[in-house]
Amino acid sequence: MWKDNPRTKWIGVALIAVALIALPFVLAMVGTAWVRITNFAILFVLLSLGLNIVVGFAGLLDLGYIAFYAVGAYVYALLASPHFGLHLPWWMILPIGAFVACVFGILLGTPTLKLRGDYLAIVTLGFGEIVRIFMNNLSDPINITNGPKGLATIDSIKLFGLDFGIDTRLGDFILSGTIKYYFFLLVIMLIVIVINFRLQNSRIGRAWEAIREDEMAARAMGINTMRLKLLAFAMGASFGGIAGGMFSAIQGFISPESFVLNESVMVLAMVVLGGMGNIWGVVLGAVLLSFVPEVLRYTVGPVQVTLFGKMWIEPEVLRMLLFGFAMVMMMLFRPAGILPSALRKRELTRDER
After folding, report:
1. pLDDT digit string (tens) for 155-192?
2. How do residues 3-34 score in pLDDT, each as one tens digit?
3. Which helix H or strand E contains 181, and what residues bound it?
4. Across the strands, what pairs with 173?
5. Which helix (H) or strand (E) holds 288?
6. What is the CA radius of gyration of the chain?
7. Residue 44 has pLDDT above 80, yes or no
8. Which residues does 259 contact at the CB level (< 8 Å), separation at least 6?
């Protein structure tokens, strides 16, 4: 086993590192769109890891998580665009976005501390919609968010003189802005994964697990459940805020329509599909649900034309049908997700006995 052989372990790590470095250049040969899809997949990984703290670690069902993504995105856009004439650097805005999202997480968490299950899901769903409606209407009498028109010409990230929004020529080689963003996102993702592992293996992480399994027993053991649930909301929201800021910088334009309920459901599906509470499972779920629909989008149409001579079902419709079917099959035959946490696997095994 690789765990018993450090050399094998480090060789595996080195191979994964080489693959991750080569990935955007290989994808660019197929089309720049695939590098862009990969960047969005990493953004979804960040979101899924943030939601996993709330849902997977602490067991709090949150259907409005995309609201924190929206808060981070708007904070970045307002502080780095001509809308207010502010052009703060990204390294200053991202922490501010994470902090503001964290405050919103506490605002959501405080009144819902005594709610669980369906009731908590309904309240968080409402919170997500309230934030989106606010973004849609905060344009009159004082224009803060520019309403449904959204905010455009958002500043890109600049690092060591490199503008990530434009291509960079290195001799005969041209490094596209999309590839530069890929490496930036990759670094952010690795940092977030390390933080997640440190949290999971800390006293706080174990207390979250205790609350998830039996809140009353956790309280009887002396765990301050209220404070730790608030901390879960705040930590999860801050990761959503960072992902939102990155989304703003990459897109250069945001509007309230980017933060609809479907996005919240998609992120939750990534966590559930990958395996709640398992960090690598959540990463896998996010990558799968980011790429598979895109692969279907590009292949379903040509396959129908080849087989039947014309297109019977629109790719978007068939893509969602296949996606829904796959999710139902997963819930029937592997309800704990593709890579369930060891604890969750034990629980399901015990229930089947």
Report:
1. 999 888 888 888 888 777 888 889 999 999 999 999 99
2. 567 788 888 889 999 999 999 999 988 888 89
3. helix 177-200
4. 170
5. helix 279-308
6. 21
7. yes
8. 66, 67, 69, 70, 73, 128, 131, 132, 135
